[in-house]
Design brief:
This is ROK family protein. It contains 9 helices and 15 strands. It is of the alpha/beta class and 297 residues long.
Amino acid sequence: MNALGVGVDVGGTTIKAVLAGDDGVVRERVDPLPTPHTGAEDVARVVASMAKPLLALAGPGAALGVCVPGIVDEERGMGVFSANLGWRRAPLRDLIADLCGCPVAFGHDVRSGALAEARWGVGVPDCLYVAVGTGIASGLVLGGHLSPSRPWTGEIGQVGVAHPATGVIVPLESVSSASAIARRAADAGIVTEGSGARDVEDAAAMGNPDAVRILDEAMGALGHVLSVVAHQVGSIPIVLGGGLSRGGELIYGPLRRALALGSIVAPPPALLRARLGSDSQALGAVALSLELEEVYA
């Protein structure tokens, strides 16, 4: 019989909770709830209300995994900072454990997604997972396990790069995130306000040269930063996740070229598309809970 774990993904707008086995198959889920933006205590209460029914289904000895956005201290179980969700140095792991009455594994949302993809998505023991959506962050998996982390680990979206239009040094996610791509295209009149990166890709596919240029510049900057990271961690597969991962060759083509350009001697890393979609982070939290169950077994 498969071991069962409960995972909760605290997102910027919604909280998701699933019960899954050690095969990565979701057995049960509860309806998502809006994420409170009124502090850590309110978030903990919502997490507990969603997790308790699933913990009851999992049975005695089940642990809970929770992943959150922002700057995270996994070792201390602390949400160091989240401007959107209204916490600073919040002891989230302890708050949730007290409410649920069970051990809680606590992690960063993107790092949790990396673990799930390595185990149950793309299925590789070593990879650098890169989530590109409204922001950019990464998680490193080696030998099937997350690499140890400190606060700010994986926040590659904050690496400084030259903005293609001005040359001013800005955070990478100001150029290469899905939201930045859409914003630049809207400012150029290529798409309407409120459009997404997919709309920019559609315009590029229709032959709009400015849309093509914006995508090339965004993926070029991302590929440059990732090639530097690859030289530190080794030429392991890069797994593209987040909203931008659903794009086509107008996303993946210039990103592969940039990775190759940045790999003068070492072989460029393989570029893979994430497979788990919106469940990746909740499943990663399940993986964390299963590791904790082994500790307490």
